[in-house]
What does this fold into?
Amino acid sequence: MTDNQYDLVVRSTEIYTPAGRVNGQIAVRGEKIVGILGPEEPAAARKTIDAGTNPVIPGLIDTHCHFRDPGYTHKEDYYNGTIAAAAGGVTTVFDMPNVDPPTTTVDRLKAHLENAQSKAVVDFGHNASGVVPENIKGLAEAGATAFKVWMMQDIGRDYPHPPGTSLTNHAILYRVFEEVAETGLPLYIHPHDHNLYELFVERAQKQWGMDFRSYARALRGGDGVVLNTAISTILEFQRSVGTKLHVLHLSTREGVRMVREAKAQGRPITAEANPFAMFVTNDWANIEKKGPYALGFWVPEEDNPAMWGAVVDGTIDVIGSDHGPHTKEEKEVGWTDMYTAPGGSPMIEQYLRLMLTEVNKGRLTMERIVEMTSSNPAKLTGFYGKKGAIQVGADADLVVLDMDHEETLRAEHSHYRCGWMPSEDFETKGRPVKTILRGRVIMEDGNVTAEKGSGQLLRPQR
Amino acid sequence: MTDNQYDLVVRSTEIYTPAGRVNGQIAVRGEKIVGILGPEEPAAARKTIDAGTNPVIPGLIDTHCHFRDPGYTHKEDYYNGTIAAAAGGVTTVFDMPNVDPPTTTVDRLKAHLENAQSKAVVDFGHNASGVVPENIKGLAEAGATAFKVWMMQDIGRDYPHPPGTSLTNHAILYRVFEEVAETGLPLYIHPHDHNLYELFVERAQKQWGMDFRSYARALRGGDGVVLNTAISTILEFQRSVGTKLHVLHLSTREGVRMVREAKAQGRPITAEANPFAMFVTNDWANIEKKGPYALGFWVPEEDNPAMWGAVVDGTIDVIGSDHGPHTKEEKEVGWTDMYTAPGGSPMIEQYLRLMLTEVNKGRLTMERIVEMTSSNPAKLTGFYGKKGAIQVGADADLVVLDMDHEETLRAEHSHYRCGWMPSEDFETKGRPVKTILRGRVIMEDGNVTAEKGSGQLLRPQR
Amino acid sequence: MTDNQYDLVVRSTEIYTPAGRVNGQIAVRGEKIVGILGPEEPAAARKTIDAGTNPVIPGLIDTHCHFRDPGYTHKEDYYNGTIAAAAGGVTTVFDMPNVDPPTTTVDRLKAHLENAQSKAVVDFGHNASGVVPENIKGLAEAGATAFKVWMMQDIGRDYPHPPGTSLTNHAILYRVFEEVAETGLPLYIHPHDHNLYELFVERAQKQWGMDFRSYARALRGGDGVVLNTAISTILEFQRSVGTKLHVLHLSTREGVRMVREAKAQGRPITAEANPFAMFVTNDWANIEKKGPYALGFWVPEEDNPAMWGAVVDGTIDVIGSDHGPHTKEEKEVGWTDMYTAPGGSPMIEQYLRLMLTEVNKGRLTMERIVEMTSSNPAKLTGFYGKKGAIQVGADADLVVLDMDHEETLRAEHSHYRCGWMPSEDFETKGRPVKTILRGRVIMEDGNVTAEKGSGQLLRPQR
Amino acid sequence: MTDNQYDLVVRSTEIYTPAGRVNGQIAVRGEKIVGILGPEEPAAARKTIDAGTNPVIPGLIDTHCHFRDPGYTHKEDYYNGTIAAAAGGVTTVFDMPNVDPPTTTVDRLKAHLENAQSKAVVDFGHNASGVVPENIKGLAEAGATAFKVWMMQDIGRDYPHPPGTSLTNHAILYRVFEEVAETGLPLYIHPHDHNLYELFVERAQKQWGMDFRSYARALRGGDGVVLNTAISTILEFQRSVGTKLHVLHLSTREGVRMVREAKAQGRPITAEANPFAMFVTNDWANIEKKGPYALGFWVPEEDNPAMWGAVVDGTIDVIGSDHGPHTKEEKEVGWTDMYTAPGGSPMIEQYLRLMLTEVNKGRLTMERIVEMTSSNPAKLTGFYGKKGAIQVGADADLVVLDMDHEETLRAEHSHYRCGWMPSEDFETKGRPVKTILRGRVIMEDGNVTAEKGSGQLLRPQR
Ligand SMILES: [Zn+2]
Ligand SMILES: [Zn+2]
Ligand SMILES: [Zn+2]
Ligand SMILES: [Zn+2]
Ligand SMILES: [Zn+2]
Ligand SMILES: [Zn+2]
Ligand SMILES: [Zn+2]
Ligand SMILES: [Zn+2]
It folds into this structure.
C-alpha cells in the first residue's frame, strides 16, 4: 500500500482518454498512472501541473525514426535525436536499423540497444533489420520490437541503404514473412521495386539531369509503378503467410486502394503515412523552393487526395515521422546531384505541430491524431496498455498542448544538430508545451531536461 | 472540494475500460465515477466491492425494449420491466413507443415520461413515435432520445402496431427522415414492406394454415424480400437526406450486404441485431419446440451465418434486446393461430447471460459485447461520456460478472410477470452478479433492490 | 428449291454483321435474307441496291414507343407513328399500353393488335399492361411480347397514366413479377416512387410555381430518390423472383451503380436509356429554350456523366425511343402549367440521326449503336435470329445510312402529325437514306412508301 | 467476276455464326467464304459437304502451342504438330518461342517462319520471344503476332526455359511492356515468381523427395503465391503502361479475382485457361495415376471452382492448348525425379473433344467454346474477320462435328509422334469429323490429308 500523496497530478479540462475527452486529473505514482480522477477530487501531490483548458494527450510514439547512431553520428546521435523527440512531444521511439552496423544479428542488436540506453532521453525500442531470416527468431528474443526490410539493393551510397538492411530476393523476403510471423511481431516494409526504380532513374537522369527535380520525378515514374508493384507483392505475401504487415510510406492512390481492400478482408495489415509527404513534398512548390532539403519523396498532385483521404478515413493507421537528418554539406550537393545526396530529413520535433495546425484548420480531429500517433503505434508494437493511452496502469507519458500558440518554424529554434529542416518557415498554430515521460517532466517550453540515458528500453512480452 | 472518503469503490482485476482491461479500482462519489485507480492505491470508501477476478463492465444500455406501459400493463409495466432490466445487468433503457397511447405528441411524450419516472428502477429515455413529421421537432425538444417508425399499417390487432406507430406512405416517411435529420437524433426503423408481407401471409395461411409455423414462414417468404425491399428503401432515403439511420432487426444476408456497403461509404448508419434472432429463432428446432413462445421472427439457415458474421465483424453496431412480453394466454393461441397471437417475447433479463455464454465458448469477445451493448448504444443515443464507458466523469453504471456460473435458465427464476420466456431451459455459463446504477447497487445475486421511480430520465443535450 | 434470281440484293462495303463490318452483298428472297455474299459473287437479282460505301445496318427495333392509338389519335395513330418510324430507320416497334383502353385484358390486347395490324407500316408487337396479375398468362398467350408497368397511380390527368397501366401496391407488383417470370417474357418497369414524387411536386409548386422549370425539378428532388428507391425495390424483387427485368429510363448515378452491380451477379437484368435524356433534357439550356417541348424528364448535370458512361460501357443494353407525341395545344399550357400539360415528345424519326451524329463525333461506335438499337432489343424481346442482325435466315430488315449528310432538324420535314419535336434545330450529321422491311424498300430519301397495314405482327414463340 | 459454281458448299442445320446458330449453307470460292446462304438456296458447287444436323463451327485457333521445332524435333516437329492440330479441329496455330534457338531476333524469327512454312499443314503465326526490348519493334515488323515472356530464369534444364525466353528483371520486363505497347500487339506472360518458386522447390524436395508428387506441390506452395505475386505485378505494369496483356495459365482463385477486377476497369486484359488444368491436373487422382504424364501444373481443389467459374462466366477469354510433347524417355524419369523431367504434354488433338464432352454434359455451351477457342483468339491476335468466325470474307476454316460419337481416347489413335498423352483413357462424347482449311478438307475421320507446307503464314497488318 502506498501513502496519501501522489507524486504528480496533471489537471486539464481536456484530457484525451480512449473514451473521449475528460475534464479531470491524471494521478501519477512513480512512473505510472495510478488514477484518473474527476476535477473536484482531492488529489494531494508532490507536484501538480494544472494545464487549465490546454489539452493533454498521451505521449507520441514514433515507430519510424532514423537516429544515425551508430555509424553516422555526425548527422545525429541517439541523444540528440531523442532530445528533439522529447521537444516534439514524442515519449517513445522505435528507431530503424539502417545504421552502421545494421542490426542484423543478436550481437549487433544488443550493442545497439546498449548504445541507445546510454543516450536515450525518451523510451525506446528498436526495429531490427529483418534481412537475415535465420536471425529473426534470435533478434526477437533479444528484444526487437519489429522487423524492417527495404525492398532494395545497396544503391551505391553508403547511406541510406547499406548492406544489411535491404533485400530484393523474393524467396528470402518470403522467408522473412514466415519467420516474423512466428515471432508474432510486425514486419515493416518499405515497398520498392528496385529494378524498376533503376530504370526510371536512368531515364530521369537522361531527361532532366541529376538535380533534385530529376530525382523527385524518378521515383514516381510510370505513375507509381515502382511502389505499387512492391505493395501488391507484399500484400500477396501477407495473404499467403498471415504475417502482421505494416506498409510504410503509403502515398499512391493505387497503393491506398490495394491496402484498403486487403484490410477490409480482416487481414492484420496496417499502413503508415509520413509527415514529409503530407506537409512538404505533396506540393511541388516546396520542392522547387527547398530542393534537397525538402526531399524525401515527391507525392504528385493526382495521388495527394488519396493519401490525405486515407489519413482522414482511417486507412492510414500510423503516422511515422520518418525523421532522418543529414548534414547541410551532405544535402547541399543535391541541388545539382540529388542522386548522390542522401534523402531523409529531420521531422520528429515538428510533426505534432504540423498536425495540430490542421486541427486548428478543421482538417484533422485531435482524436484522429491521438489514434495515429499514439494508440495505434502502441497497438502495432504490442505495448498498448503500457503506452498509447491515458489510463490507469499505463506509463505516465503525457503531452500538454497549447493550441493557441502561433509560430513560424525555424531550424535555429529546434534541437537538431544538423541545422536545417524541411518544415522551415512553415506557419503553425498549436504546440506541445510540456512532455512528461513516466511521470517526469522532460520538456517544458522547449527546454529538454531529461538526463542522457534516462530513456527506458521497451521489450516485448513473449 | 470533497472529503477523503469515496462513497463506493469497486475493485477488480478485469475492469473493461475503453482502453482495454485494467486491474484497478473504480472510485465513485455520489453518482459519478470520479476516479479510476490502480490496484495499490489507497481508496478509502464508505463501501467497497471487491470483485476479485470477476470482470466489471459498464452497465448495459438497451435501446430497444417494449415495456407495455401505458396501455398493456397486464403484460408488464415500467416497474416490472426495469426490475428485469436491472436483474439482467441493464442500467439504461430506451423504450419503444408502441404503447397506448403511442407517443406521437408532446403531451403524450410528457405523460409517458412522467409515468416512466414514477416507476423506473433504471435510467431511461424514450424513443418517441416518429410518424407525425410535424410533431418531431416538438418531441425532440420535449426529450425524445430517438424516433422509431414501423414501416407497417395497423394490421388488425391492437398490438403491436396500433395506429400512431407505423406508416407506409413514403412521402411521409421521407419527411420523417428530414425532420429527424434536423433534430440531430437518430431514426430507428423497423424495415418491412407491408403490402408484400400481406401477400406472403395470405399464401402462408393458404399453404400451412394459421399456426406458428405458417406465421414464421410468412415473413421470410420470397427469400427475405419483405425486409430487403424496405432496407434498400431506407438506405436510399438516408443517402438522399443524410439522417442518422439505425436499421433495426438486421437478419437477412442481402440486408447485411446492403448495410455493410452503405456504411463503407462513411454514411451515419448503424445496425441492430436482436438476441431472439441470434439465439432462439435462428434454429427451427426451437420454433418447433416453443412455438409462439419462441416467435419473434424466424431467421432461416441460409441467413444465419451472414447475421452472426455481421455481429462478429462489426457490421452490427448495437444489440437491442427487443424485449417485449405478452401473457401466456395471449401467446397460447399462437399454437393454432399465430396470426392473432402477438409476436414479441421477454429478453431483457437474459440477453447478457446468453452472450456471456458465447464468450465462454469463444465465439464473442467481452470487448465486442461491451461495444454492442454499451458503448455503441451510448454513442447512438448521444450519451457517450455520461453512459457507455467506465471512465471518469461518467455515471457509475457497472455490472459485476461471474463468468463461471452455470445455470439452466428458468422463467420462474426471472422477474418477468408473464411467467415464460423464449430462453427457457437454455444452458448458460456466465451471469451478472451485481448491477450498480449511478453508484448504488441495485441488483445483487438476482435480487433487485432499487426503489420504484429511482431511475432517471435521460434528456439529450440540445 | 428456288430460281436463280434473288428478289433483292443490297451491296455495301460496310455491312454491319454480328461478326463486324463486311464488304459484300445481302441477298434476299421474299422477306428473308437467304445469303450474305462476297462483293465479287454473281448475284442476279430482280432489284439491286448498291449502297457503295454507305453503311448498312439492321433495321432498328424500338421497344419503347407510345403511338396514342387507340384513344388519343388526335396526337398520333399507329399509321402516322409507324410512318415516322420507317422514316427514322425503325423497322420494328413495340408500343406501350398506355392507350385507351389500356391493354390489360386479352380482349383489349386482341383489339389493340387488330387495330395496329390495320395501320402499321413496320413490324410490330405490343408491350401489354402488366397491372393485373391474373391476366398475364392469358395476355402472353394472346401475343404480348413483354409487360409494362408504371410504378404510379393515376395522377389526375387522363394521360399518360390512366387507370390500367400503373400500380403502386408492392404485393400486386410482386405477383406481376411472378406471373411474368412464368411466361418467360421480360417485364419493363418505369421506376417511380409515387408517394415521394407527390411530395416533391408539392414542394416544387410551392417554391417555383407551376411552370416547366418547376416540373423538371420536381422529379429530381432529393437527388433522384424518387427513381432510386423504385429501382432498388424492383432489383430486389428481381433477385427474389428471378424475372427478366428491363429497367426503363435509367438516368441517375445511383441507379446506374445499382443496376451495374446487379448485372455483374449474372442476373437477367437489362437497362434502357432514352434519346430525350441523352440529347435534350441533360442540358438545362434546352429546357429553358424549349420548355414543355423539351420535357420529358430532366437529367441534372451531376447524373449526366454516369448515364452517358453507362451508354458507352454497356451497362445500358437498349435505347428505347420513348417516342410519345402530344399536340402543340396540349404542350403549350406547359409554359405556365406543366403539371397539367402532358410529358412525352416525338423522337422515333430522329433518334438514329442523333446517334449517328455522335458516331461522327467519335463518342459512340456504330457497333454500339447496332447493339443498343437492334441486336439487344431483339434479344430482349426474344426475336433475335429473326430480327436484330444481318444474317441468313433473318428478316431482311435493313437501313442504308449516309454518314456525310448534314442537316438541321426541322419538325416540318418530319412525318409527325403534331408539328413539333424536341430535337428541333439540332445540327446532325448522318441519316438513314433507305429503310428496307422484309425485303421491301419502305422509305427512300425520307419518302415512306409502305402501305397502311403492311407491317407484321410479331408473336413470341411459346 | 466469278463463274456460277462455288468451289465448295458446306450445308448444316447448325452453323455457328457470330449471330447464333443458322440453318444454311456456307459457300466457298477459293479459300474464302463468299456466301452464307439459306438452306433452300440453289448453290451449285464443285464439291458439297452436307453435314446434316452435325454442327459446323469455325476452325479452332490455338494461340499457345509448343511444337519443339527447331531444336527438339525428336519430340515433335512443325509437320507432326500441325497434323495433330488438323486432326483436332485446329486450323490456325501460334507457336511459342521456346525452341532452339529461341526467336529473340529478326533473323531467328525469319528462319523460324521459313522452317514453319516448309512444314505446316495449318495456318500459323509465331509468338516471338519478347525478352530483348530492343528487338521487339523489329520482330513486330518481321511478322511476330504476339510476344511471349516467361517470368523465369534458366532453371538448369535446356528445356523448357532456355536462355532467350525468360526474364525476371522487372526493369527489362517493364521495357518489354512499353515496346510491345508501341507495336499494338498483345503480350503473353507466363506469370511466375522465380525466386519464390525456387524456395518452394527446395522445400518440396526436402519434404517429399524428387518425384512427380513433390514437383506438383512445389509450384502451389504458399497457396499460389508464386503465381499470384507475378499476376499482381504484371497487372500493375499493364495499368502503368497500357499494354494489351494476355495472362497465361490462369488457375488460382486470387489470380481470377485480380484479373476479373482489372478487366472490369475496362483495361485491355485477357486471360487464358489450359485444357490440362481444366481436365487433367485439377484432379489429384489423375496425377497419382499418370504421374509425369499428367504434369503440367497441379490445380488444387480449392482453386478449381474459381478456375472453372472463370471459364464459364467469361473471365477466361481464351483456351490455349499449351500443347507441348516430350518423349516417353524424357517423361519416364519423372516418376522418381520430376525436377529433371520436363513438364508439358500433348493436347492439341484432344482439347476440342474434351470440351465437346462438357457440352454434352451441359457444363459448357457450344457458343462459349467457339468464343474461347476461335473468336476470342482471333480478336486477341488481330485476325478477326479473316479468322475466328463463319462470315463472308473470312477464310473458309471450318470444323464439322459429330456430337454423338463416343470414344475412349488412346494415344495410339492419335497423330502424336511421342506415343502418349495426358488424356489417355478419358471417355469422350463429341469429336471433329472434318477439318476444312481455307476451303480444302484437310482432315476427314481422323485422316489428315494436307500437304506438308500447305499452311499459310499469318502476318499482322500494320
Ligand atoms: Zn523507408
Ligand atoms: Zn525511413
Ligand atoms: Zn421492430
Ligand atoms: Zn421491437
Ligand atoms: Zn416511362
Ligand atoms: Zn415511355
Ligand atoms: Zn507457360
Ligand atoms: Zn506453354
User: Anything to note?
Assistant: The longest strand of chain B covers residues 6-17. The mean pLDDT of chain B is 95.
